[in-house]
Amino acid sequence: MEVLTTGGAFSLLTTANATSAATSQAARLGTLVLSRYPSLTPEAVRGLLVHAAEWTPAMAAHFPTPREGSLKSKRYALLKRYGWGAPTEARVLASAAGDVTMIVEDEFRPFARSKSSISMRAMRLHTLPWPSDLLQDLENAPVRMRVTLSYFIEPNPSNRGWQGRYAYASHGLRFDVIRPTESLADFHKRLSNAAEGEERGVRTTSATDDRWFLGQARNSGSLHADIWSGHAVDLARCGVIAVYPVGGWWKQNNRRDRVSVPVRYALLVSLFTEVQADIHTPIASKIQVPVQIDT
């Protein structure tokens, strides 16, 4: 980010860049979001700024090609350099007919207390109001689904907080989407295995899917984003998304005073088509969005 300013004692032109400029611009976008949508939670506002970001042509010029070795590792390196790109006011505040965004704000208690320990007990399943008939009619047309999960953690900045992956954050959340040929029972089983495997430091091969831009590399920090690319007919059968917990110091330290504390999150899902198709109307009809009539 670089900003031109006319401030100064002699009204000289100067520039500000890097985080000094980006912080003020991000704060402005966050303020605009709250002004337009005052009921949104901080988790949703934070997620929306990342969800609406896009890579500029200059950033995209550094994207790896499939012949450059491990494609996902190259993408992750690029993400560490540019993040998800730069959000614009237009994209943050509005969606077009061929580009629709759904925001879910929810909370749940992810842990349960037994006699001797704390275990994970819950996940959230969200049924997406997909226009399945329309997507099936589009058949092999290319579509993209963008997902962002935003939440805040309680940090543990003590010395022992650096001794393990799950010692600093109070808890972690993850998201995943049911696959086209996967039953709900198999989806549950895969997520349980993925959560348990992550805590043991084991990456389960069943959790990988080449249609995701990042895949498992998206799970750092407390804001996770990824993009699914594929055929419309396949996405028509991917109508369930899960948010599930992984352990943190609340669980590892057996903090019984934190078991009943709910964790809050915002889940943002966008659907993009590369063909002329109105996906907004059937989604709005399913969730019964009121239609404003100008008179």
UniProtKB/TrEMBL annotation:
All residue ranges annotated as the Peptidase S8/S53 domain in the record: 13-85
Highest taxon in the source lineage: Bacteria
Record field: transmembrane: none
InterPro entries associated with the record: Peptidase_S8/S53_dom, Peptidase_S8/S53_dom_sf
Protein name (database record): S8 family peptidase
Organism of origin: Microbispora hainanensis
